[in-house]
């Protein structure tokens, strides 16, 4: 006896929910997220090699954050029991990421242009991350994506501060103390000695 198409997908969804497996739409969403994260990583790596940027730590932080997102997505894809869902990023994705990185390097004529390009791609990753986190079924995946989301939002705030004119975008509590100033800031919420 063959089930009608609607009932087949309902049964398949029920089995996946009971086993804790990811669904087809979530697999596509995680693959898009991984591709976007790998693209941001490739662009950050390429921009960090420019003489005008001179290996800025913001690009390194962005590259590492994107790598963590890609590793999280890949780990959840590999945990799926169906073999065709466990595939890694293909050669086409790698070539497209390399082409996007080369295009970013060609457009980055100075430091501010490099940071604008990086910020645009990081915002794209942030939107993909928001979508994946909002629509996921797995609680552990949502927690991991939430931590990455907070880190990427912090990076975006730092990049916005750089564009606005702040030189470092470092909070006042982390800035070096001036001469004669106390090493311990008074605005710390709790100090236990």
Would you tell me which CATH topology applies?
Ferritin
Question: Span between N and C termini?
Answer: 74 Å
* CATH class categorisation: Mainly Alpha
Largest sheet: none
| Number of alpha- plus pi-helical segments | 6
The assigned structural class equals: mainly alpha
How does this model look, in words?
The chain has one domain (26-165): Ferritin. Helix content is 67%, strand content 0%. The chain has helices at 5-19, 24-48, 57-78, 91-107, 111-134, 139-164.
Briefly summarize what is shown.
With 193 residues, the protein is mainly α. The protein has one domain (26-165): Ferritin (Up-down Bundle), CATH 1.20.1260. It has six helices and no strands.
Strand and helix map with partners:
Layout: H1 5-19, H2 24-48, H3 57-78, H4 91-107, H5 111-134, H6 139-164
Keyword list:
Ferritin; mainly alpha; 0% strand; 6 helices; globular; 193 residues
């Amino acid at each position: 006896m063959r089930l009608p198409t609607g009932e087949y997908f309902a049964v398949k969804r029920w089995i996946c929910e009971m086993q804790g497996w990811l669904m087809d739409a979530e697999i596509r969403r995680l693959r898009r997220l991984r591709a976007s994260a790998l693209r941001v990583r490739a662009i950050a790596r390429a921009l960090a090699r420019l003489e005008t940027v001179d290996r800025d730590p913001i690009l390194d932080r962005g590259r590492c954050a994107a790598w963590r997102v890609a590793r999280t997505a890949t780990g959840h894809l590999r945990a799926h029991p169906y073999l065709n869902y466990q595939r890694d990023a293909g050669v086409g994705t790698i070539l497209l990421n390399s082409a996007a990185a080369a295009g970013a390097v060609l457009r980055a004529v100075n430091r501010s242009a490099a940071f604008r390009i990086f910020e645009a791609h990081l915002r794209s990753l942030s939107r993909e991350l928001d979508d994946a986190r909002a629509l996921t079924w797995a609680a552990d995946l949502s927690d991991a994506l939430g931590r990455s989301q907070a880190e990427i939002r912090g990076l975006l705030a730092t990049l916005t501060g750089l564009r606005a004119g702040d030189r470092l975008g470092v909070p006042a509590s982390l800035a070096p103390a001036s001469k004669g100033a106390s090493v311990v800031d008074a605005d710390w919420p709790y100090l236990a000695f």
